[in-house]
Amino acid sequence: MALFAVQYTYTDDAERVQSVRPEHREHLRELHAEGTLLLAGPLSGAPGALLIVRADSEEAALAALDGDPFQRERIIVDRSAREWSVSIGDLPGA
């Protein structure tokens, strides 16, 4: 399996983001416990996040995140996945 950097862009509706965030984070914790999601966190400057996902393809990386409550509630307005290789340092679980 490969690693993929998935970038989320969120809606500007901060109130909606906050209302769904607990469910979103619980879902991501489950993916982390399964070993699918290695890292995740918000990006600064604009509403969005970066997630590092283990999958067989870009399509599979995005499909693994389809159950995200942010996706279901249309808080994610754009997302993309690109294969990512660690060239310096170690990533636990990679």
Itemize the secondary structure elements and their pairings.
Blueprint: E1 2-10, H1 14-34, E2 37-42, E3 48-55, H2 58-64, H3 69-72, E4 76-84
Domain YCII-related: 6-84
InterPro entries: Dimeric_a/b-barrel, YCII
Family: Belongs to the YciI family.
Keywords:
Alpha-Beta Plaits; globular; about 35% strand; single chain; 4-stranded antiparallel beta sheet; about 90 residues; alpha+beta
The CATH superfamily is known as Dimeric alpha+beta barrel
Q: Categorize the overall geometry.
A: globular
Biggest sheet: strands, sense, closure?
A: 4 strands, antiparallel
CATH class: Alpha Beta
Rg (C-alpha, Å) = 13 Å
Helix percent reads: 25-40%
Q: What is the CA–CA distance across the termini?
A: 9 Å
Which CATH architecture? Answer: 2-Layer Sandwich
Low-confidence region ranges: none
**Whole-number mean pLDDT:** 94
**Largest beta sheet: strand ordering:** 2-3-1-4
Number of strands: 4
**Strand fraction band?**
25-35%
Number of domains: 1
**With helices defined by DSSP (H or I, 4 residues minimum), what is the helix count?**
3
Secondary-structure element pattern, one letter each: EHEEHHE
> How is the CATH topology named?
Alpha-Beta Plaits
Q: Please state the oligomeric state of the protein chains shown.
A: single chain
Class by SSE composition: alpha+beta
